[in-house]
């Protein structure tokens, strides 16, 4: 299968036009099936996906070890095509609690040393702090990653959920390949300031939450029961009246999808793909059937009439509820 590719900014690597986000295979969306997760990573590599995204704090190293296991079990050629993007910096307790971020240079190197071991690789392709550590100037955090680049342990410097000012300061310190940030039909916050800044600086976007964590995938039902450890059980967009309103938006999208003979998830992913060659959507598939559906989005062409119909169905700002609970909103786009 031939996979479309896109560049992660002007200094980053060329990657598959869709990346695989592995978070849900370990954490945050309830239980996942380990064998099916590994089979999904293998199927993605087989289909030509080259970008795998993780965080060292996704179930405290679990997700990195899972990816390491999948890579070891993959044929050498598939293993070698994989580019691994790792987020670090979130501090966890043994009970899974969250206690802030650490972007101090010594911490950055410590996080990286452990990630290399868990992944079983000799370098990380893109390395980024998950959230700005408000106590450490971004220049120091990025400077530490730049030293890891010089030493060969990291190939490219990324950013995650930072605002335009921080993007500019980071880019003035060292070359930045991409900013990872939420972007979807119902999360368009980057369009006003952040996207113009990344475009001016030649920095790519790896977009996460393109299905808004399943909300606009077409598979999320009004009566779905969520486990207490599922992020969505506490996410404003998935609560009560907000959920009803947001799923009405999905119903409007479904009509367009049906007319085009594609699925809702494919429309939502194709919409993000249509927003620019500098944007690489990360899809959070953790089963092979979901992956196959997501990859189908690469074949969906949205013309001007389709895009206008989508805009009418889901206008900018149409979602009810913020994309994170209030305490977590305080740490995004900083
Ligand atoms: N930088 C950051 O702050 C940040 C934050 C969050 C995530 N991320 C990264 O971005 C990646 C993607 O984020 P996400 O998982 O929230 O994104 P997503 O793709 O919006 O949501 C994934 C969810 O959508 C559901 N889904 C339904 N149909 C799907 C399909 N065809 N393909 C894929 N998923 C489908 C899945 O549910 P079921 O499995 O229940 O079917 C899954 O739980 C993560 O894995 C992580 O690597 C980064």
UniProtKB/TrEMBL annotation:
This is Aldo/keto reductase. The keyword Acetylation does not apply. Residues 18-313 form the NADP-dependent oxidoreductase domain. It holds the Pfam family Aldo_ket_red. It comes from Streptomyces viridiviolaceus. InterPro entries: Aldo-Keto_reductase, NAD(P)_OxRdtase_dom_sf, NADP_OxRdtase_dom. Signal peptide: none annotated. The keyword Oxidoreductase applies.
